[in-house]
Amino acid sequence: MEGGYAMAASLVLMLALAGISPGEFVAELPTFHCLGYRWLVSGEGASRGRVTVEYRRRGTDEWSRSMDLFRVDRRGMPSPPPAGTELFAGSILDLRPDTEYDVKLTLLADGNVVAEKRITQRTWKPPQLAAPKRVLHVAPGTGGGSGSEASPFRGLAAAASSARPGDLFLVLPGTYRGPARFTRNGTAELPIAWRSVKPHEAVIEVAEGDIVINAGGARHVIVEGFATRGGRLGVAVHGASNVTVRGCTFASIRRGVMGDSGESRIVVMDCVFEGKHVWQKKSPTKTEDRAVDLSGSGHVVCYNRISGYRDGIDTRTPGPANGVDIHNNHITVCTDDAIELDFSNHNCRAYDNLIHDCQMGISFQPVYGGPAYAVRNVMYNVAHEVFKLHVTPPNTGKPTSGGVLLHNTIVKKGVPFRVWSDEGPARFFYARNNLYVGDEGPHALEITCPMQEADFDYDVFAGRFGTFASWNGKRHGSISAFGAKASQERHGRAVRDAGGLFASGLAPPADLATLHEVDPARFVPAPSSAAVDAGVALPGVNDAFSGRAPDAGAFELGAPVPHYGPGYEEATRGRPARVAEGRERKPKAKRATRRLREGALAEWDAELRDMLLRRFEKEPPITFFFHMVRGKATVVSVTEDGIGASARGTNLNATWERLSLADKRSLAAAAASDSPMEQAIVAFYIMAAGGSELDAREHLVASDILADAVRMSFETVEVGERQTTEQ
């Protein structure tokens, strides 16, 4: 007992010296890919506090870092904590679904450890009824039937009256008269599932002013594969929890899925929403038409395709809205906001979304302290504000506060980052590694509302602009002046020529009114792009970057392009990890190294020629440059006559004058690598003569070829008996 008393006394003394004391700790509801936390601390040293975050998959040894928790602006919170306290909040991103994680949060004051909090949580997965207790059948009709395959229930109402936990209702193709009431409760282990036997062929039809499916107040219900006809609202989930809407289609309906009574854990995924709004025309109604509109916490809205609404996906009152994920959606033709994080409180996240042909991008109007994340979103032809950072009306007494903008790619006409409002202020906004591309305008960055406690850096801006920034009522002629006088974007980049940023040659839209077919692969950066290696390392966000530093924008050069819109199963099967998750426990092994196998270069040269001829179907001429060993280069040319002779072993200096400026820059960048293996093999550059360029799919195929060649060219050699852990 004496040891325990001594430890307790030491802790009390340490807290007293630090002037800080840990208080209430809250873990948000886990989502498929994220965990979120809030930690309240008090004392005179609370303002000097910092909370670090580490995590690992259960069963692994080493901890991985996530970004620190953010200090929450008390001015932005509707109900701020007592005076003398500070709230810290933040999320761990990019985790695996249905996976258990150990999480360690450490409270520091002036660099000293004050307290540590450990928690184990399992990420969520899409709800499903794995082992039904009963399988029942439903056919169109107005009553009767037993639910057997031979005698199905006639109509949804007859089936719903007999529903109990663990039931799977297989609904046959046809038209069903609604409204459907799916309000009986399942359980976490035994949800009630309603599934269209053939996707979208079970159609629920209602009058224009009705609700198609009412799941208000329901618990643990799954609705899958239906189509709607008529109605004002597709699925009502007011006050519901653990309701999943999956693979449904909503055509010409003003509101798709809506809840306004503090819902919990609503999932909307793999759905198609088609509204009535038309691009660049006034709304046909005065209503706030929205595809998905949810209050409450713990929701996931992912892999949907949305078009023709005023707003695409919204968080809303009443709150609080905490721990909500909006990701991998394809959103277009919204006459207001594609995504609203409005009225969100803490740890709401919009990431990996594709947005184009919308009036606004992502709205923070307002965020109540945050953090509210916008991460790796791609936006094209957003007519006005890509990020809405102001408050309407301004007399609410609360600013919008706590936005986190990371690795987004924006390509638009005019000023690429504009907030054009006298409403505000916007406080505690943090931005890193974003890529903003416009064509021309007065500024690259134009924010007219007051910006307070902002921290913007390592972003890249491209386009022909008069002055770089308008910020807090002052103009800054260059990005360097902006860094010196406003203490923003000190490591940012500004380039006037946007032409070489993307491998596809993608440019800003010429006409706002045009609708665009957007291929995400066109946003992959070119090897010589100003966005490559322009960012900064962010733990738990871009751990898997290649090169000297992370790339600015949504896509890392050489990484797979995400999937947007319906297709969760295909998109997540074999999904590569963007972040480290700890090292798995593996048996000890002898220390080993790898060396170039004798004769490998000659074999590689021949094998690559053969693979290039077999696997690439591209109009000639194309030239491939392989950076090889110690300043040597291999040049393989594909012409109309086939593959040309290789100049393997040719001294790079001897051929330097024959290379284009772009080729020189690429080879020079490869030669500057600090890694011997990169110098020998891995720096692989593809250029096309005569302006012909490979698309992103072919670029990935080329990367696969290179990986095959590396594996063929090296052998493993034991160099000693020293034992080490395999990584």
Can you tell me about this structure?
This protein is 13% helix and 39% strand. The chain is mainly beta and 727 residues long. Among the domains are: 2-122, Immunoglobulin-like, CATH 2.60.40.10; 592-717, no CATH class. It has a 22-stranded mixed beta sheet that branches. It has a 16-stranded parallel beta sheet that branches. It is globular and about 75 Å long. The two termini are 42 Å apart. 48% of the residues are buried.
Helix and strand arrangement:
Blueprint (H helix, E strand, L loop, with lengths): L1 H17 L2 E7 L7 E8 L6 E9 L6 E3 L3 E2 L13 E8 L7 E10 L2 E11 L11 E6 L13 E2 L1 H5 L6 E5 L2 E4 L2 E2 L10 E5 L5 E4 L5 E4 L4 E6 L2 E3 L3 E4 L4 E6 L2 E3 L3 E5 L4 E6 L2 E3 L15 E5 L5 E3 L2 E5 L1 E5 L9 E3 L2 E11 L7 E4 L2 E10 L4 E8 L2 E5 L4 E2 L11 E7 L2 E3 L5 E3 L6 E2 L2 E3 L2 E13 L3 E2 L2 E3 L2 E12 L2 E3 L2 H8 L6 E3 L72 H5 L15 E9 L3 H16 L6 E6 L4 E8 L2 E2 L6 E2 H4 L5 H11 L4 H7 L1 E4 L8 H18 E12 L2
Parallel strand pairs: 9-10, 9-11, 11-14, 12-15, 13-16, 14-17, 15-18, 16-19, 17-20, 18-21, 19-22, 20-23, 21-24, 22-25, 23-26, 24-27, 25-28, 26-29, 27-30, 28-30, 29-31, 30-32, 31-33, 32-34, 32-35, 33-36, 34-37, 36-39, 36-40, 37-41, 38-41, 39-42, 40-43, 41-44, 44-46
Antiparallel strand pairs: 1-2, 2-6, 3-4, 3-7, 5-6, 7-8, 44-45, 47-53, 48-49, 48-52, 49-50, 49-51
